[in-house]
Amino acid sequence: MLTDEVGQGGTTASGPGNNAGHRGGASQNLVQLITPQGERVSHPEYDPWVRDISDEQLGSLYEDMVVIRRIDTEATALQRQGELALWPPLLGQEASQIGSARTLREDDFVFSSYRDNGVAYCRGVDLTDIVRVWRGNASSGWDPYTVNMAVPQIIIGAQTLHATGYAMGIQNDGADSVAFTYFGDGATSEGDVNEAMVFAASFQAPVVFFCQNNHWAISEPVRLQSHVHIADRPAGFGIPSMRVDGNDVLAVMAATRVALDRARRGGGPTFIEAVTYRMGPHTTADDPTRYRDANELEDWAAKDPIRRVKALLDRKGLLTEEFEAAVQRKADAVAREMRAGCTGMPDPEPLDIFKHVYSTPNSWLDRQQDHYSRYLASFGAPTGAESEEGGYSSYVASSGDPEDADSEEGAR
Ligand SMILES: Cc1ncc(C[n+]2csc(CCOP(=O)(O)OP(=O)(O)O)c2C)c(N)n1
Ligand SMILES: [Mg+2]
After folding, report:
1. Nearest ligand 1 atom, CA 190
2. Which CA distances in Å does 137 have to 141, 184, 362?
3. Which atom of ligand 1 is nearest to 113's Cα?
4. Interval between CA 118 and ligand 1 midpoint (Å)
5. Beta carbon of 155 within 6 Å of any ligand 1 atom
6. Which domain covers residue 257, as residue numbers?
7. Are strands 241-245 and 270-275 parallel, antiparallel or unpaired?
8. Final residue of a domain: which of 344, 359, 390?
9. Is 248:308 a contact under the CB 8 Å cutoff?
């Protein structure tokens, strides 16, 4: 089982400089720079990539991880309180998301999945916008071009195609930015991800494939989906890969820098497997106790990504009371802001759902809209929305004979 290996440091099979990354052959070892006990272990190949990281920056990475765990806890609570319809927790994946996202440049472009809300935080997505879709308030959370991050993809793996296409565009523009795509272990079984890798390799596109192997695809264990390490698969496409401890923020950062550097210098795509663990349920609608062993969770809790950086800071004498209090204050403030934004966002008009389906009129949709507006009218005229131009009331007003509404009775 892959879970046993993350306790120790390791090396890769690849050479020096930016030849880092495995091109096939024997299975790779795991890159680790901080042990679960918080010990900084040296790694000749990857140390140079994070040599510049100061104590202050390490503290900042720790703060980021604490903050996104707090975002996650708060959003889970909001869901339990009926304020969000659903939430996909990132608990346990903080180092993978912070170590990578904090390494990106502003002009790089991110294509992610639903679980990468820590990445969205790093990109500067408004806290209210992070939860907007999960509240069922909008079809899309934010404008991708304001933060250079596409809205999260729910169709498993589809974002990797978008990333490869975007990367080919970067190439055409002659720019040195990079398309960076996040996806899960389960996604690697999808055709989309494989097609994205074929194109990326063929055109040597500046794209980084960042797979968070959290060991589960809902209730399917990774060992069922892949009989080899996931990082061994890209070799078949001619894409170099790295296999890093995804609960080690420095190892993730080093690998991300290797991959970005290669892409910026015209060296084409890289695949990173960040070996981590989904410590929570798949979503708030899931109960993992029905399909996974409690011992597995306990093993991974001992490899917690935040605890190990905290232990490292402590070893360095940097974990002062003031520092810890400041981190806590920041996390609380972020959680407060997100909660206020969530509960304070105005409800959309029910018929707004029809506005963004087609750009041109469509008789099928018109008929459905007409039905729905008469159905809504059967509950009596709403208050408050009547005055809004083009809103609920105008649809209701034009919906015709209230007798018709009775025929919708069964739909209640
Ligand atoms: C194309 C497609 N097939 C199936 C699903 C249903 N589905 C939602 S999440 C998920 C598992 C994804 O697992 P993984 O890629 O490991 O990502 P994780 O949820 O672990 O972050 C599946 C199968 C979907 N959303 N899209
Ligand atoms: Mg997974």
Report:
1. 1
2. 9, 26, 24
3. 21
4. 18
5. yes
6. 2-344
7. parallel
8. 344
9. yes
Between CA 158 and CA 190 the distance in angstroms is 9
Cβ of residue 185 lying under 6 Å from some atom of ligand 1: yes
How many domains does one find in the chain? 2
Q: Check whether residue 206 and residue 77 sit in a common domain.
A: yes
Beta pairing partners, 212: 184, 274
Q: Are residues 193 and 320 in the same domain?
A: yes
- Give the up-direction half-sphere exposure of residue 370: CA atoms within 13 A in the CB hemisphere: 11
Give the active site residues: 278, 282, 291
Q: What separation in angstroms does the CA of 223 have from each of 1, 88, 359?
A: 7, 22, 44
Q: Is the pLDDT of residue 78 over 90?
A: yes
Residues 310 and 401 both lie in one domain: no
Residues 272-301: pLDDT tens digits?
A: 999 999 999 999 999 999 999 999 999 999
Structure-token pair, residue 334:
């972020």
Provide the residue type at 353 as one letter: I
- Torsion of Cα atoms, 256 then 258 then 262 then 265, to 10°: 100
Tell me: do 246 and 326 sit in the same domain: yes
- End of a domain among 292, 319, 344? 344
pLDDT in tens, 215-227: 999 999 999 999 9
**Position with higher pLDDT, 10 vs 85:** 85
Residue from 113, 159, 218 to probe ligand 1 pocket by mutation (most atoms less than 8 Å from CB): 218
Per DSSP, helices labelled H in 39-124 are 55-80, 94-101, 117-123
Q: Do 84 and 134 touch, CB atoms closer than 8 A?
A: yes
The number of beta carbons lying within 10 Å of the beta carbon of residue 276 is 29
